[in-house]
Amino acid sequence: MRRTITYTWHLAELMARDGMHNSTDLLPHLRERGIDLSSSQIYRLVTGTPERVSLQFLVACCDIFACTLDDLVTSTVTTKARKAANAEVVDLNRAARPRRARVLPDAD
Asked: Which residues, other chains included, contact 99 with Cβ-Cβ below 8 Å and sequence gap of 6+?
């Protein structure tokens, strides 16, 4: 079985819920909590789905929006079963073997 894990980043939705409509609105709240990021870094965090985020940033966002990590990030796990072998197994002794050739002498 193969497991695939995907996640959805909800920072923009949480900001909209609290009336923050620009990524720069988040900047002073993060600086109050000791996180100093540039406006372009915050823009990328708000508009995209980050692959790596510091725990300090996650905890600060949870504090700013009074939410849990489950509200900020939701994950989905899908399990894919391996393909089973084909039920129709071919007997190679009968199907793939060539017929024996009969060599006859030339008729003069």
From this structure: none
